Amino acid sequence: RPRSHTVTTTSSSFTANLSASSSTLAYDREFLRTVPGLLMVTEIVLGLLVWTLIAGTEYFLYPAFGWVMFVAVFYWVLTIFFLIIYMTMTYTRIPQVPWTMVGLCFNGSAFVLYLIAAIVDAASVTKDLDSHNYNSWAASSFFAFVVTSCYAGNTYFSLISWRSRTLQ
Questions:
Q1: SS (H, E, C) 108-131
Q2: Tens of pLDDT along 42-67?
Q3: Other Cβ atoms within 10 Å of 121 Cβ, number
Q4: Does residue 70 belong to any structural domain of this protein?
Q5: pLDDT value of residue 107
Q6: Would you say residue 87 lies in a domain?
Q7: Which of 40, 60, 94, 157 is deepest in the core (most CB within 10 A)?
Q8: Could you tell me what percent of the chain has a pLDDT over 90?
Q9: 15 pLDDT band (50/70/90 cuts)?
Q10: Position 46 in a domain
Q11: Domain MARVEL: where (predicted)?
Q12: What stretch of H or E contains 64?
């Protein structure tokens, strides 16, 4: 005896919304004109300068500079990632993520670890260590402190944004 099979397919609203929303990416030109946007660009440019000044030396012979390299490259990559998220307004497409808290944690950790790295960098720069690399290490130390101040500024703006969200 033949059996009849009925197959029913359904489409979830999640997949319909995902395919509809991922077809175009928004671009927020105005973000780069805000103070946090300008600070992010400065962090990227000067962070690149920090790690390229160290990478051009024999930093791997000195563990302190290895730590500075790790912090500089790690936060450089993450800052580019967050800049892309903010520029493409991806954060509006993923409302489940508490972006204000993520930004505050990111900028706060970047400030603390960059401050430690800048202090380690400055304390490790001596002419006795390697006079050939002295200028590069001294310049990287200076720019590390400048990047640290940029992350401190972004931490402040993230804190203000987080407070305004939690008070609502």
A1: HHHHHHHHHHHHHHHHHCCCCCCC
A2: 999 999 999 999 999 888 888 899 99
A3: 28
A4: yes
A5: 97
A6: yes
A7: 40
A8: 61
A9: very low
A10: yes
A11: 31-163
A12: helix 63-87
